[in-house]
Amino acid sequence: MIELSERDGVALLRLADGKANAMSLDFCEALTARFAALSSARAVVLTGTGTIFSAGVDLVRLLEGGAPYIRKFLPTLSTMLVTVFSHPAPVIAAINGHAIAGGCVLACAADRRVMAGNGSRIGVTELLVGVPFPPAAIEIMRCATAPQFFAEAIFGGATYSPIEAVGRCWVHDLVESEALLDRALDAASALAALPAKAFALSKRQTREPALERMQNREVDAAVEQIWTAPETLQRVRDYVARTLRK
Q1: Long-range contact list for 154-161, CB < 8 A, 24+ apart?
Q2: Sheet holding 52-54, edge to edge
């Protein structure tokens, strides 16, 4: 599900859960556990497989499990996102393909993002599906998005080309697919060359306001209420049906 290898002290995590790396309860728990075990890594590179980095939340599994599953899933999803976002060592996202909805959020939780300019799309489509953003997700997007594009990205639900993503600050470097991992590893090594304790403290200082806003339990409860509502589940069901027909 989450493959781990090592290159010169840099941990390489590869999402390898089916074709789409869709985020289920098990997926979120596995990625959280992987990051928790990386205390000795100088830096982390996170990438996907094939033509998809991650397609976001596993909506089919969500519909199968219904409200009881969602009540377990949402806090687990948030824990995963916070774990990646707050990891003390440098984290580089090597975006190998499509990064949609939660997949975009996961990529944006990294300190630096390198994307293959291969015709892939990236964007947050949550409102088109019919679900609101958990606090962890929206704060990550607030941190990663150029301010003038933040509202457009959240409310528009559009997906963007890699070059458009650069203009929105979601992506820092565009490369050919075959050079993606090398560029990401170079970026990881460059950040890892900084004094580790100074980097970790500076990262915590820059992200602390967002991390504090993520602890909004009132909003978490409101998000859960909407996600588990029968009308929301019907919207998700309709969205999945439309997507499968394409």
Answers
A1: 154/124, 154/127, 155/127, 157/123, 157/124, 157/125, 157/126, 157/127, 157/128, 158/123, 158/125, 159/100, 159/121, 159/122, 159/123, 159/125, 160/121, 160/122, 160/123, 161/119, 161/121
A2: 52-54, 98-100, 122-123
Domains and CATH numbers, the chain: 2-192 (3.90.226.10)
The beta strand positions in 21-109, using DSSP E, are: 43-47, 52-54, 91-95, 98-100
Which among 53, 98, 100, 81 has a CA at the least distance from the CA of 239? 100
Q: Are 7 and 94 in contact (CB under 8 A)?
A: no
This prediction's pTM: 0.97
- pLDDT tens digits along 57-71: 999 999 999 999 999
**Other CB atoms closer than 10 Å to residue 129's CB: what's the count?**
18
CA–CA dist 21, 1 (Å, integer): 8
Three-class secondary structure of residue 119 per DSSP:
coil
The count of C-alpha atoms lying within 13 angstroms of the C-alpha of 132, restricted to the half-sphere facing its C-beta, is 14
Listed residue (57, 65, 45, 46) closest to 20, CA to CA: 57
Total number of residues shown for the chain: 246
Question: 10-residue block means of pLDDT along the chain (246 residues)?
Answer: 93 96 98 94 96 97 98 99 98 98 99 94 96 98 97 96 97 97 98 98 98 96 98 96 78
Burial level of 37, CB count in 10 A (0-12/13-18/19+)? exposed
Answer for the pair 183, 173: CB distance below 8 angstroms, yes or no: yes
Query: Coil, strand or helix: which one is 236?
Result: helix
